[in-house]
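User: These chains co-purify. Model them together.
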Amino acid sequence: MPVRVTLDVMLARRKVRARDVAEQIGLSETQLSLLRTGKVRGMRFDTLSKLCLVLECAPGDILDYDRDDADLNAKTV
Amino acid sequence: MSKHAVPVAALLTRVAVVGLGLALFFEQAGARQVLHLDGADGQVTMTPVYWVSLLAPAFFLLALWAASNAIVRMDQGDAFGPTMVRGLNEIGGSLMLGAFAATVVQPSLTFLIGNGFREMRGVRFNLDVENLTLALVGLILILLAREGQKLKSKLDEFV
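Assistant: Joint model of the two components:
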């Protein structure tokens, strides 16, 4: 998927542990791990805003996009 | 009311099921006495018909009972979780079985009992609109439960 989760980078920058962040935003460690490895279909806005609040960053610091022209033809669920 | 208490709607449904079940039993039992079906000649042939006539309503009451369980699960916030889907399948399945019993099983068995199991020429049908509608509603419930389960699993992939 061209949208990449760059949460690991932000966690390293802020020098916080994933476990602590997961606890603060009310996610399980497993869910956060799935999110970090990009093994989820999507992220809810409330999860995104909680992450931004805890890590003091903007959504663009957590997510990145690799351009792919095929995205226009992707099937919408 | 605490979160795990039985909701009023579910409680009323269960009371209605018990009431309807008792009413059905006494209504049928009363009909047997009025018609003297347990007499010397009638006992052999008509008593099984009495039990067969209870088959479809019993399934419909089972569906109502399953509906009360589904209301409880809904109240607990189990939206299309495994137990909710199983509950919806139970309701749909009971409705379909009840409709099948009323449409095919009851007429065929009543005919068979009536002639003492001596002859059976094909399957007897009772194509009432009510029963066919109930069967279709049951089928739609099962299909809706499947779709809901699919949507729920997709939603669970979002964190």
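Chain A touches chain B at residues 27, 31-32, 34-35, 40-44, 47, 77 (CB under 8 Å).
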